[in-house]
Amino acid sequence: VTEKVNNFPPLPRFIPLKPCFYQDFDDDIPPQHRTLAKRLYYLWMCESSLGQEPFVCRRGRDQMGRERNAHA
After folding, report:
1. Which of 3, 12, 31, 46 has the maximal Cβ count within 10 Å?
2. Cα separation, 34 vs 38, whole angstroms
3. Are 22 and 6 in contact (CB under 8 A)?
4. Domain membership flag for residue 3
5. SS3 helix, strand, coil % of the chain, rounded to 5?
6. Does the pLDDT of residue 60 top 80, yes or no?
7. How far apart are CA 18 and CA 11, in angstroms?
8. Membrane topology for this entry (predicted)?
């Protein structure tokens, strides 16, 4: 039995912290759901970046805000 090394969250080498747990899309997520899971993960990463989101994230958030305001 091989021991799995923690690999998530991925951190740059200059940060003195180590990853907290092991994540492997191929082992943990069924094949039919991998694309959706990866897209949601990237969306979460994009939205959770503190003030450094790319234009795409800002545009998506602005559009969602307009939709919410239209229903109010």
Report:
1. 46
2. 6
3. yes
4. no
5. 55, 5, 45
6. no
7. 7
8. Multi-pass membrane protein
Determine the Cα–Cα distance for residues 28 and 22; give it in Å rounded to an integer.
Answer: 10
Q: Decide: 47 and 61 in contact? Cβ < 8 Å.
A: yes
Mean pLDDT of the chain: 75
Q: Running DSSP on this structure, what letter comes out for residue 71?
A: H
- How high is the pLDDT of residue 16? 92
How many domains does the chain contain in total?
A: 1
Q: With respect to residue 28, please indicate whether it lies within any of the assigned structural domains.
A: no
Could you give the CA distance from residue 8 to residue 41 in angstroms, rounded to a whole number?
12
DSSP-derived 3-state class of residue 44: helix
Report DSSP letters for 47-68, one per residue: HHSSS---HHHHHHHHHHHHHH
Domain that holds residue 64: 33-71
Q: Is residue 1 part of a domain?
A: no
Is 11 part of a structural domain of the chain? no
